[in-house]
């Protein structure tokens, strides 16, 4: 009888929330949220357009930057539909299948971004260690294979997640903690044993995020060794300067991620607003600021933006 009741009450929809405890102010989140997404899309789209039209940027470093911009666009598009629907239209209900689809894309593109950052670190190491063979090592074919490997790894790791969630019954609360769906958030609402989900989620994080973080640390240790071996101080500074934008992108991705993880594990006593804020920063901040960092630090991109938006006025 209890099994029958559980089946009857198995939720097929979830309720999304915006800022916990402040539903009356959710509408006032819509305007800055729409502005944030618009800026994110414009910034990453400009990066992609400039790299395509500027022949001087047809180099391995900028091809990897294009991968990062495309990933940031995809990650933003994954969270945008429900974020906008909750804060702008107060549409808070989402079906189980839609929720599972969204969590797949969010986790997938998060893994892709981590992998692209590793590929960019490898690019910087090759450029500094083998400057004369840089273009022959990182050919178009190699870059395409690296991009495909990064995407395939992330898809392979995240693909079991929808099936692991789909098998669980949800007969308790159906209220999620955010305005979008995450695996760990949906998993806590299940009224069944979730040890398989927890173990797989931990292994997935170790195989992607933790492994990538270790590779990034090793890469920059090797890069620093190479830079210190350069005789000229000016050349050392020039080599380090080529890594600055990538270091910023790594920090923008990993610092919010580590903060969100620590709060999720050890900050259960903290206000739900803190949890929501950290999760939103992790999802929204890197795609917003990565184009800003690279636009400021890359002369060709900066000049193209100035010509595109101010060219006529400058010409007069």
UniProtKB/TrEMBL annotation:
Q: How does it sit in the membrane?
A: Multi-pass membrane protein
Q: Transmembrane segments in this chain: where?
A: 27-50, 62-84, 104-122, 142-165, 199-223, 244-267, 273-294
The record ties this protein, via SUPFAM superfamilies, to: Family A G protein-coupled receptor-like
Q: Which gene encodes it?
A: LOC112865722
Q: Which domain of life is it from?
A: Eukaryota
Q: Name its GO BP terms in alphabetical order.
A: cellular response to lipid
**What species was this sequence derived from?**
Puma concolor (Mountain lion)
Question: For this UniProt entry, what is the primary localization, expressed as one broad class?
Answer: membrane
Would you tell me the protein name for this molecule? Olfactory receptor
Keywords attached to this entry:
Cell membrane, G-protein coupled receptor, Membrane, Olfaction, Receptor, Sensory transduction, Transducer, Transmembrane, Transmembrane helix
């Amino acid at each position: 009888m209890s099994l029958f009741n559980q089946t009857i009450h198995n939720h097929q929809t979830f309720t999304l929330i915006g800022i916990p405890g402040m539903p009356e102010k959710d509408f006032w989140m819509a305007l800055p949220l729409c502005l944030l997404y618009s800026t994110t899309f414009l910034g990453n789209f400009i990066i992609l357009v400039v790299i395509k039209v500027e022949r001087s940027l047809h180099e391995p470093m900028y091809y990897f930057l294009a991968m990062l911009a495309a990933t940031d666009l995809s990650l933003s598009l994954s969270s945008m539909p429900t974020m906008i629907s909750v804060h702008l239209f107060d549409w808070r209900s989402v079906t189980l299948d839609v929720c599972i689809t969204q969590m797949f894309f969010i986790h997938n593109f998060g893994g892709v971004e981590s992998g692209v950052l590793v590929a960019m670190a490898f690019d910087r190491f090759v450029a500094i260690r083998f400057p004369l063979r840089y273009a022959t090592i990182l050919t178009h074919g190699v870059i395409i294979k690296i991009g495909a490997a990064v995407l395939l790894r992330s898809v392979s790791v995240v693909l079991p997640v929808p099936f692991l969630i789909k098998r669980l019954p949800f007969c308790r609360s159906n209220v999620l903690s955010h305005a979008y769906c995450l695996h760990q958030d949906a998993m806590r609402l299940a009224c069944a044993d979730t040890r398989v989900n927890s173990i797989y989620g931990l292994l997935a994080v170790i195989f992607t995020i933790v492994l990538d973080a270790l590779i990034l640390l090793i890469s920059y240790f090797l890069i620093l060794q190479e830079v210190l071996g350069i005789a000229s101080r000016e050349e050392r500074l020039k080599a380090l300067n080529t890594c600055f934008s990538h270091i910023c992108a790594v920090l923008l991705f990993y610092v919010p991620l580590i903060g969100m993880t620590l709060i999720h594990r050890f900050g259960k006593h903290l206000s739900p607003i803190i949890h929501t804020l950290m999760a939103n920063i992790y999802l929204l901040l890197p795609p917003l600021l990565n184009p800003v960092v690279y636009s400021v630090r890359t002369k060709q991109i900066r000049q193209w933006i100035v010509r595109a938006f101010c060219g006529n006025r400058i010409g007069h």
